[in-house]
Design a protein that fits this description.
Largest sheet: 5 strands, antiparallel
CATH topology: C8orf32 fold
Strand order of the largest sheet: 5-6-4-3-7
Helix content: 25-40%
CATH class: Alpha Beta
Order of helices and strands: HHHHEHEHEEHEEEH
Number of helices: 8
């Protein structure tokens, strides 16, 4: 409980106040960040077992994360497995967010933030670095996961792999710090149209036209504080 309170206070401080937002809007944003972060229970045995079974063994001699495993997890959570349900519990202080292990237990059901939480948790459970984008735009609110894929050269290799695997004509990356890239892991519509869903598909609510974007990091905080580089999935 103390850990959650400390995290909540830190996130409140991390949400910038703006002229357009009231204190209560900032508080609601911080509370949503806490709920999403807490729902990513990637150390839970149920989540970890599902992630390892979905990813399949690494093709890397070292056993390190590969983009193949990321795509395998995406496929295992999407068609034909995930069933979309609208969240009826939306309030001023956000909405209900289902823990990754609970989404597995109930048979892969929920809305966009539940999907994003499960996707990020599974990839984090096998060693990847993820973040969840909470976006508001003209089309409404949305949430989706992103996985860190490294620099421009690494992103280019990832793009080529996804084009080969899915026949995708375009692969979308969300820029991070200068020279770094995050691959989007969003579905393709609401309700999701799984027939054309693939990693790197442009997100349902475009970041370029969003009125507000909040990022929830799902990665090793100890490594980040120590200054270690984020893990980059290798490409076969």
């Amino acid at each position: 409980m103390k850990r959650c309170l400390v995290l909540f206070c830190l996130l409140i401080l991390s949400v910038p106040a703006t002229a357009e937002q009231s204190f209560w809007d900032d508080l609601a944003d911080a509370w949503l960040l806490v709920k999403v972060s807490a729902a990513c229970d990637y150390t839970n045995p149920t989540t970890r077992e599902f992630a390892m079974n979905a990813a399949k063994p690494s093709s890397s001699p070292s056993g390190a994360l590969t983009i193949t495993q990321v795509c395998n997890i995406f496929d295992a959570v999407t068609l034909p497995h995930w069933t979309y349900f609208y969240d009826p519990y939306r309030t001023r202080m956000g909405e209900s967010v289902t823990a990754a292990s609970d989404s597995i237990r109930i048979g892969l059901r929920g809305d966009c933030d539940d999907f994003a939480v499960l996707m990020a948790s599974c990839i984090r459970a096998i060693g990847g670095a993820c973040r969840i984008a909470l976006v508001n735009g003209e089309q409404g609110g949305h949430a989706f996961a992103e996985v860190y894929v490294g620099d421009e050269r690494s992103a280019r290799n990832v793009r080529e792999y996804i084009v080969r695997r899915y026949g995708a004509g375009y692969v979308y990356f969300d820029p991070g710090d200068p020279g770094t890239y995050w691959l989007t892991l969003d579905w393709s519509g609401t309700p999701p149209r799984w027939a054309d869903a693939y990693p790197g598909r442009p997100p349902l609510v475009r970041l370029a036209t969003a009125t507000k974007v909040l990022y929830v990091p799902i990665l090793s905080y100890a490594a980040a504080i120590a200054g270690y580089p984020l893990p980059v999935p290798s490409v076969p």
